[in-house]
Amino acid sequence: MSPEAPIRRRPRKTFDWSSTTLAVAVVIAAAVVFWRDGEARFLEILYSDFRLFIDILPKVLAACLIAAFVAVLMPRDVVMRWVGAESGLMGILIATLAGVICPGGPITIFPIAAAFVAIGADTGAAIAFITSWTLLGYARILVWELPFFGDEFVIWRTLISLPLPIVAGLLARFIAGLSFPRKGGG
Fold first, then answer.
1. Cα separation of 142 and 13, whole Å?
2. CA atoms of 131 and 32, how far apart (whole Å)
3. Where do the structural domains in the chain lie, given as residue ranges?
4. How far is residue 93 CA from its own chain's centroid?
């Protein structure tokens, strides 16, 4: 057993407001398709979505396991020092760079970001990480943008987007500091 305290996670409900919203949207959309296009089209879509769910499920499970192992393997004090609340601008820059170089889709990135938050990364760093992955991720640039838009577009879009993860991370850190002031006088 590790001498470190176990990772404390926020209690979560299995079925919360976002799940309820999605469930209501699914039921309404399904009813509209059934009414408008008939039972055959409804069943075709249902089968296709079920196959997609079965295809994605192992990827989601693998990403969550990777994130859990990352949370256990990364020393909490190192994460807090490099991208924690006291890391300053350098923490936001490190998180931004990590977002740029991390491959994968949201199935991979969001569990990893959640794991880093669970072991000491602050909100600003997590937002900088996700924002930079979204705007500046190298995989998106190489696979999608360069072939479709060419180098001039990619250069301009990247230059314009460069400050955004940093601004988002600093703004999130500031707002989180106002909303959830640190306890213990520090």
1. 39
2. 35
3. 14-62, 74-186
4. 17
